Amino acid sequence: MNPLPQDMENALTGSQSSHASLRDVHSINPTQLMARIESYEGREKKGISDVRRTFCLFVTFDLLFVTLLWIIELNVNGGIENTLEKEVVQYDYYSSYFDIFLLAVFRFKVLILAYAVCRLRHWWAIALTTAVTSAFLLAKVILSKLFSQGAFGYVLPIISFILAWIETWFLDFKVLPQEAEEENRLLIVQDASERAALIPGGLSDGQFYSPPESEAGSEEAEEKQDTEKPLLDL
């Protein structure tokens, strides 16, 4: 037998796949589809996903943790009031930690505004805050005299640098991919429910019927009755 042409093989393959997809859609339980759609719609009504909420909490933790370290530094170096006046009112780029605190405030405001208020689904805001934080901290470490002021000269810049990059990693590898995956699942479930709604349901009880007896079966019955009559007469 000659092999089938390539076009005919492609047509057969396409028809088989289409029949398989129709069988899959027909086998989906509409109740399960509606439950999934309602669950996804419930998440949308929340306004913010769980993973994005976790990211915003971490951004808040970044601000509070840097603020706590800065307050401890103020208290260690001669009292909060005196050191606060020295670092804020008499600000000196080469010896003050106040700018590191302002950098944490900058990250908090930009990221909360972008990803909690505006609910962006792009990485440009986190890229901006991380780039500004990294450049500022590198310049301050190189030019300032923080290392001569004790342990906080190392702790505050390193902690700020690490937290900024953890935020970038968490958004880029957790928040955005997971939200995109949930959105794709919702679209797939909605599409499957729409296709399942277009397919008519199963046959009802009234639609089942028994096929009529064939003519061959009726003729055999008549012949059997004819043979039984003479026996009864005897």
Task: Give a structural overview.
It is found in: Late endosome membrane. This is MLN64 N-terminal domain-like protein-like protein. GO terms for molecular function: cholesterol binding. It comes from Equus caballus (Horse). It is a single chain. Helices cover 78% and strands 0% of the residues. The chain has 234 residues and is mainly α. It has a domain at 50-196. Helix 2 packs antiparallel against helix 7 (152-198). The longest helix is centred in the last third of the chain and has 47 residues, at 152-198. The chain starts with 5 loop residues before the first helix and ends with a helix.
Low-pLDDT runs of 5+ residues are 1-26, 202-209
Rg result: 37 Å
Number of E-type strands = 0
Q: Note the main sheet.
A: none
Helix content: over 70%
Strand content: under 5%
Structure classification: mainly alpha
Taking the alpha carbons of the first and last residues, their distance comes to 64 Å
Mean pLDDT: 76
Q: Could you say which overall geometry the principal axes of the C-alpha atoms support?
A: rod-shaped
Order of helices and strands: HHHHHHHH
The tally of helices reads 8
GO cellular component, one term: endoplasmic reticulum-endosome membrane contact site
GO molecular function: cholesterol binding
Pfam family, one: MENTAL
GO biological process, one term: cholesterol transport
